[in-house]
Hints:
By secondary structure, this protein is an alpha+beta fold. The chain has one helix spanning 12-28, and strands spanning 33-38, 41-51, 58-67, 73-81. Strand 2 and strand 3 form a beta hairpin. The chain is 21% helix and 44% strand. The protein is elongated and about 40 Å long.
Amino acid sequence: MFESWGYSVDDSQWLQKEFERQALDKYVSGEYQLGVLDKFGQRIHIRIEIPRKNSTEKVSFYTGWMVHPGGQIKLNTPYGGK
């Protein structure tokens, strides 16, 4: 999927940092959807938008995160659907 958008393994660190940056910004501003709450924690869905490297378009999709005690979030699912 990421390769079809022009990304390679060499881009993985940038992608990780970009996911984290956007997710934190949106989480803090309340731009997320609540998911399942269970004994493991609260799941949330955050929409991420990244530019395609092989065109001028952007792709937008949901990512899945877990909210841990104290409010820290951790990425569970990098691509949860469009």
